[in-house]
């Protein structure tokens, strides 16, 4: 028994010693190679030849990949192109492309994601094939890899997947496309004008979140869609973009037959702070939909004094629903108002 305990203790010590030695070796290699990689990234691509010895061990490749990916996540423009060029010259890209063909799912997935992080445009076709795989792990890895690329082809695949029945995947894809920022806008506008209604709705939402001013025209055109969800999402997007020139079309939607559209149009007019729309918003305080009444009251509170005046008038009106929402907003903002019996409330 004592012998067994001593053996186990010795084995643990040896394992720990080896791990410590390996960590030390890895750290030493990183401190040696990282300055060289940074130097290479800061040089024009033409000067990136023969800066590095070819790695001979798997962990050395891993360290180089980690450094390149870390740098790629911190920079943009010409220097990002240098990172990609450098990754090709040292053989990292070829190694990862080969890894995508591995029999091991983990290796395939990691290789796909790393190629995306390194912004390798030549990997798009391979990532597209992986994104279409029946294997769930491969499919997600392919989509994540594509999500880091801003090429038209990559965005096309991501947007086509927005209609996926998986809500988790939809949310992940939305996050990836939003992270691409302005690079994604042209493809999003194209998707907004497409045939797939689910993709059009998602594209409208992202364009609003990105505050894409160049999408105002296409979003306004889509307000005439027969699909109420698309109309509502486009109205919401126009509100987030905040261009007052959209106010006229949004006011027209205040009479839409779908309450979802009326609610989003009211909210958008508040975000735009369209004061001429105060009277029409006040009329919505009597709407049969709770959401429409709520959004209209909140929108009025965003219009300043003209909005508060409309809310005060609603307090003394005969409509109970309008009165309730008006009082709610006036109390929220600490605005004094006169009750129907002449009592002054919220007086400072």
TrEMBL record:
**Entries under SMART domains matching the protein:** EZ_HEAT
GO: which molecular function terms? oxidoreductase activity
Coiled-coil segments: none
One Pfam family hit: HEAT_2
Task: State the source organism's domain of life.
Answer: Bacteria
**Name of this chain's protein:** HEAT repeat domain-containing protein
Q: What is the lineage of its organism?
A: Bacteria, Bacillati, Actinomycetota, Actinomycetota incertae sedis, Candidatus Hakubellales
